[in-house]
Amino acid sequence: MHLTAQAVLVASLIPFTTNAQGLSERYKPAAARIIGTSLQSSRAFDQLGELCDAVGNRISGSERLDQAIAWAVKAMKADGLENVHTEKIRVPYWKRGTEKAWTISPQRHELSILGLGMSVPTPKGGITADVVVVGSFEEMDHLGEAGVKGKIVLYDVPFAGYGATVSYRVFGASRAAKYGAVAALVRSVGSLSFDTPHTGTLVYDDEKLPKIPSAAVSIENSTMMRRMAKRGERIQLHLDMENELIPDLPSANVVGEIVGTEKPNEVVLMGGHLDSWDVGQGAQDDGVGCMITLGAAHIIHQAGLKPKRTIRVVFFTNEENGNHGGTGYRDAHKAELGNFVAALESDSGNGPVKGFTLDFHGEGRNKTITTPPGEKAKAEKSLALLTTLAPLLEPLDAGKMEMGGGGTDIGPTVSEGVPGLGVSHDTTHYWEIHHTKADTFDKIIKLDMQKNIAAVAVMAFVLADMEGTLK
Ligand SMILES: [Zn+2]
Fold first, then answer.
1. What is the mean pLDDT of residues 67-85?
2. 76 burial type by CB count under 10 A (0-12 exposed, 13-18 middle, 19+ buried)
């Protein structure tokens, strides 16, 4: 029989549409139960407050992260998870020391700085040098060695979205070292500042370039130096950083499960990262992501729902400065990754939930992804299936499904062929406090967290229970 192209299209759409409608109809009662239960529960919100106040910030390798790991084991058990255990991972310990910076000329100003994670310290006694202010890598390239050698480079780059601006923090030190700079400062990568510098990791280029110390300065101080430079004033600055890097200390991912009733070997993984920067309380980044996923598992359990597949909650270690938790998890579980039907991560704060992003590449949350033409059909089919779940999330205004990054921790797992899902949040206020000492529990809005938990619980439960998969 010969069919026209249109007839083929219609024929292939009919069963899909019927199944799809059936899927959201079928899971409507479960979703309603999950949402109702979550909006009534303060449990995960209260637990996060306890983690923030009793443990506080928890950089990889620190005693506080060890305390957080022990706390998380107890929390998972108390929340009704099974098979709760830790999986050993070795991590670096970047230890902040005394940090001071001030301008000497045109006059003395104490500067608000935070050394960048993994930075080398300054030589004993600090560095005193002239500052050259640039607004982009191109501007520095134009100045070349003649304009940069022996100086401290300040990248005063306005925030144009995290993905667009963060390269100055990550790669700025080595790019400046190439021209002989003695240190690199970067305007805080954040959308707002109350003289609150934003730290974060840097990555040194290969071993050929000298490693120079690098720190973030507050937006207030950075723009001040930009104005001074514009007036033609000579800026001389003293920078003193006494941090140290201790390699390879023991740490762990924390794991717990709701074991599937019919296909226990098939897994929906979900989680966040338990480590944080060493300032503030690591509330939005990413204590809340951990507690959104654990909270979701608890709500499923509390609502009396038993998925056919296993839901596995993982709190990863060392996302911020190495991602050893994410790569270590992938390496340790390589043999079973073929049975994973999805990996979901929440790592962009607690703003109102908007929906989910679908990732087949293993990219971080803030990356824009271009799907290669060869994978387009697969991606479109999975996105179409995901979109059929949107009606279940509409009561939460969380029905937006699109292609996008999943998360740094799940990235290595996703790059092995496991469909990745990122939780989309409104990040308007996230970038204001991200990686600063202002990332504290008081900024967590309870109703937003309850809705985040509900959306993740609905998604995880349906993916773990439905007939097909996103693969
Ligand atoms: Zn994070």
1. 98
2. buried
